[in-house]
Amino acid sequence: MGSENGTDSGLTYTWAATGPAGVTYTGTTNGSNAAKNITANFTQAGSYSFTVTITDSGGLFVTSAVAVTVQQTPTGVIVTPSSVTVAPGGSQQFSATATDQFGNAISSPTFNWSITGTGNSIDGTGLAALGSTPGTYTVTATLGGASNTASITASGVAPIVSAFQVNDGSVQRSMVDSLTVTFNEPVTLSAGAITLNLLSQTGGSSTPITNFNLNSPDGGTTWVLTFTDPSYIGSSLPDGAYEVSASASGVTSQGLNMAANQNFTFYRLYGDFEGTGSVNGDDFTQLVGLLGTQTNASDSYADFDGNGVISGTDFTAFVTRLGTSISIPSLPSVVLLAAAPPVTTVPTITATSNAKSMASVANSALGDANAPSAIPAKISHQKPSSRRRH
Description:
Layout: E1 12-18, E2 24-26, E3 39-41, E4 46-55, E5 61-70, E6 76-80, E7 83-86, E8 91-93, E9 95-99, E10 112-115, E11 121-122, E12 127-129, E13 135-143, E14 146-154, E15 161-166, E16 178-183, E17 188-189, E18 194-198, E19 207-209, E20 212-215, E21 222-227, E22 240-246, E23 251-253, E24 256-257, E25 262-268, H1 281-290, H2 312-319, H3 353-366
Parallel strand pairs: 7-14
Antiparallel strand pairs: 1-4, 2-3, 4-5, 6-9, 8-12, 10-13, 11-12, 13-14, 15-16, 16-21, 17-23, 18-19, 18-22, 20-21, 22-25, 23-24
């Protein structure tokens, strides 16, 4: 207000402001008589001080000041992630940011969170906990009059064992130096999730096998067991029937466990090159054809002691098993994948006096139904194949 002895029309009004950002004026021309009513435009929230100078035609003036606080008003909210899928019963952390009427970020906002769906909940930090019902639900973050949403889908497939493989998948059971358990998706295994037991052939208790390493070469889908017991000849399990078990509670993926335990049985019987469950004349023919040769990837299963050569030691181990067979107790059937391609080339062996002596031992063993056995209890003897070839 100003006191003037003339008329108001001779006064001019000039505005100036200080604050965190510049101020512009619209609606009239600053510094004119009409500027007694003027619109100030802000670009940033904060505290401002306005000064107006009123000047008459003789150059006399008076000033007046007013303080103005421009408050941040939430006008935009962004929720992250905007869309996500988790397993039923799982959880997901959401976060949100807000902007004011100028598009500037609001520092340390406190949002109100909500989620749709019976059995679902979300806390004040944006941590959503889903119930057991599959579906798509809406998460909302609200600050003042501004809000935004995100979607969360409860969906997941419980893990299962999709394949079990002994060695490289070949049918031979002469050597068993690795086992592969493959799941339908990457899984996390708790301690003891996969176990290995030697089964009793007489109905007694099984014997746990604990000396093995368990590793995943692909980040959790495939798990390979290899054996570390120094007493295992050729790094292979000893002869016997075995069971591999995957525990439902120990296998987890996307917050879900397997629905039930999964068990697989298999056996190892040195000399059973053809995977028939017995050591017979056909197996003998294969071994004789390999005697004296160095092993390779296609015939390493015949190398009993794993020294790289098919030798007399391997032959002796074979002869003690000739005519024997093995059975698996009443458990789920063993899973045998496709057989490896047959060996089409048999190395030529020149018989020496020692080799002839070995052949004589083999002839005797073929005709002896009471040949000694190194197989655990209840491994039966069978008559050798009628297709004996020496």
